[in-house]
């Protein structure tokens, strides 16, 4: 190979390298813009949740809150008059599945207080001696609402409505799929059991409830929106190891408190 040719090749390589760096810079810039647009879109779609302070509520305050802000939503779901047709259809579908699995209708217990284990828990479902149980923790909703009020979150009524619908449908996903803990059982409930149950139930909730809300640009709880984003990032695949790790990271700290 002649020296000139080597020199030419060297120059060509340098030019390619320069172009490569330039192309990478453009790609990085496009990526940053893309990420910023997505972030802006996500910000529009969910509540900005400041760090949660836990407030105390009197029973009368919780009763009033339930009657004014939550009970009408529960009624809409029950009467299939929630503003989104797909959500009513989903509620209907899950009610039928629960009825055929347990041979019972679905009743919900309204708890005027926080969950004994963690004040962030909005709702839970389980089986007690084979009977279905769905509990709604009103204090946790009151707390969120109060914080949004103090921080001037304008769409707090809409977010609380959608959040209750997501919670109820998520718990119904647990029950309909049989991914629930039998409270009367002596068998220990391990973190693996919890992850198995949550990853299946959340996959259903993301795919059939949060996806619909996202399509209609409904404002939802930040943590629900994060869950939906993870679901998309994991390729909407309940079997994906990434989805398992994501659910494990969310539930492990809470699960430890149950022991
Ligand atoms: Zn769950």
Explain what this protein looks like in three dimensions.
- The chain has 259 residues and is mainly α.
- It folds into 2 domains: 16-44; 59-258, no CATH class.
- The chain contains 8 helices and 3 strands.
- It has helices at 3-45, 59-78, 85-102, 138-150, 156-177, 191-215, 222-233, 241-258; strands at 108-111, 123-128, 131-137.
- A 3-stranded mixed sheet has the order 1-3-2.
- Strand 2 (123-128) and strand 3 form a beta hairpin.
- Helix 2 (59-78) packs across helix 5 (156-177), helix 3 (85-102) packs parallel to helix 5 and helix 5 (156-177) crosses helix 6 (191-215).
- The radius of gyration is 24 Å and the shape is globular.
- Mean pLDDT is 84; it is low at 17-50.
- Zinc ion (ZN) binds at residues 170, 174, 198, 201.
- Residues 170, 174, 198, 201 line the site of zinc ion.
In a nutshell, what does this entry contain?
By secondary structure, the protein is mainly α.
Q: SSE layout and pairings?
A:
Elements: H1 3-45, H2 59-78, H3 85-102, E1 108-111, E2 123-128, E3 131-137, H4 138-150, H5 156-177, H6 191-215, H7 222-233, H8 241-258
Parallel strand pairs: 1-3
Antiparallel strand pairs: 2-3
Helix pairs in contact: 2-5, 3-5, 4-5, 5-6, 6-7, 6-8
The protein binds zinc ion (ZN).
Q: How many domains, in number, for the residues?
A: 2
According to DSSP, the number of beta strands is: 3
Strand order of the largest sheet: 1-3-2
Order of H and E elements: HHHEEEHHHHH
For the residues shown, what is the average pLDDT?
84
Task: List the keywords.
single chain, 259 residues, mainly alpha, 2 domains, three-stranded mixed sheet, 66% helix, 7% strand, globular, binds zinc ion
